[in-house]
Every structure is written in structure tokens, then in C-alpha cells.
Amino acid sequence: MIRKITPQDFQSFWPTFSSVILAEEAYAFDADMTFEQSYQLWCEAPLKTFVFVEDDVVLGTYYIKPNAMGPSRHICNCGYMVSDQARGKGIARQMCEHSQQVAVELGFKAMQFNSVVSTNEVAVKLWQKLGFDIIGTIPKAYKHPRIGYVDSFVMYKWLL
């Protein structure tokens, strides 16, 4: 089930969220962000934030927000996280499909991911299967903790 996030949901997902940002493999977030800073960034700053819940366990979460303002306000941006125990079960796919429906309901016409780390091959392939194109490559945009500087992709999909 996908539904709007509650403070308790984020609290229960915090160990996953914290481990993802500490790994520094997928998100350009400060590894030393506090719970409060993370909650503000993920749950309060976006337009909406959702969770994927199964058997009362939060297995994933995503946010949706405008990517820009003014003449580009028709493009949204999303971020997704899935717990280790839920990877490979189609949860990211379900959340991305849900986010596209929500985006259209909110009046967005396109979705853009600004920085998909090129070494996050599972995510890149999933987004491509869901119709997103790589429209740009930012050379050496991400400092991976084991590999060093790697490229990031800008990915885009027209939703209508």
C-alpha cells in the first residue's frame, strides 16, 4: 500500500534513510545530516511524500516536488528510497509508477531526475524501463566512496 507519510513512518524508516545517506552511493546528501534535517528535507520541503507499507512495515518512501519555478513549474522531481530487505521486489517500480500518476494529478506534465549516479545501475535500468531517457551526463559529478569521481545522469520523461 502506498500512502502519505506520517512522522512515525519516517521515524521507523530512519535506519534505512540514515544508512543510505551514510553509504554515499546514491544521494548527494550530507552524511552527517541529523534526523531533524533529514525529516525537513524529505518530508516537509517537498510538495508531498509517500511511503510503501506492507504488514505495517515501511519498506520504501518517495517525495515529489516541483523541479523549478515559473515557466518550468510543469516539471516535477522525485526521490525514492527502498529498504535493503525490500530490494528486488518491485517496490521502487510501484512507487515510480504511483509518483507519475500523482504528478499528473498535481498538474505536472514531465518528471526529471537531476542526478542519477551512473554507478547506480539498477536504478538507471529501472528508470529507463519506465520510459525515462538520459538527456544529459554530468561528468565526474559524484564522488563515490570506493570508486572515486563518477558521472551522474539527468533523466527525463514527458508524462502526458
From TrEMBL:
<dbReference type="GO" id="GO:0016747">
    <property type="term" value="F:acyltransferase activity, transferring groups other than amino-acyl groups"/>
</dbReference>
<keyword id="KW-0808">Transferase</keyword>
<dbReference type="InterPro" id="IPR000182">
    <property type="entry name" value="GNAT_dom"/>
</dbReference>
<feature type="domain" description="N-acetyltransferase">
    <location>
        <begin position="1"/>
        <end position="160"/>
    </location>
</feature>
<protein>
    <submittedName>
        <fullName>Putative acetyltransferase YhhY</fullName>
    </submittedName>
</protein>
<dbReference type="InterPro" id="IPR052742">
    <property type="entry name" value="Mito_N-acetyltransferase"/>
</dbReference>
<dbReference type="InterPro" id="IPR016181">
    <property type="entry name" value="Acyl_CoA_acyltransferase"/>
</dbReference>
<dbReference type="Pfam" id="PF00583">
    <property type="entry name" value="Acetyltransf_1"/>
</dbReference>
